Amino acid sequence: MAIASDETTRICNHCDRPIPSSNIDLHYAHCVRNLEKCKVCGDMVPKKHAQEHFLNTHAPVACSLCSETMEREILAIHKGENCPQRIVTCEFCEFPLPAIDLAEHQEVCGNRTELCHLCNRYIRLRERYNHESRCTGVAENVGSSRDVRAAEREQGAQRRQPPEYSRRRLLFTIAITGIAVLLGSLFFQKKTETSQVH
Hints:
CATH class of the domain at 11-82: Alpha Beta
Radius of gyration: 36 Å
Strand order of the largest sheet: 1-2
Strand content: 5-15%
Helix content: 40-55%
Largest sheet: 2 strands, antiparallel
């Protein structure tokens, strides 16, 4: 039904829309009875769907990865950039793991070594990019890196001889733990038998 362009309109006090003056009373009665203005976005929604509108559009949501609650609008950004449980890959081994564990993993993974085929030295993965830009491709004459590493290991082994008392303490701790587990299992077994009798 076409509305004549010269017909005057009035603004509905409930929905703030222009309504033809001849229909304003009927519209207003219908509008107040059936529509509600969303307190968050200002959209007019049917009263019977107001709660559903709020839950689907504005209610805080929990991240499926870390359970943190946030507004729906930032959930995608959170999951992609901020969530500690989002899956990221290690820059050294490309292993996928939660972001919260990345720093600890890369600390260990970056200390692994690979042989540089230009200079025949073992280079830490975390230093590989810097090494590749500086590597001259000339092998050093200090002997093979395996020989150097073997000598370093021998020196380290001589320096790090564990004292005897720490071995005794370890054995004592293992023995006490074993006794505690044994006593605990016996106590639990007796408690279960007693509860079955009653």
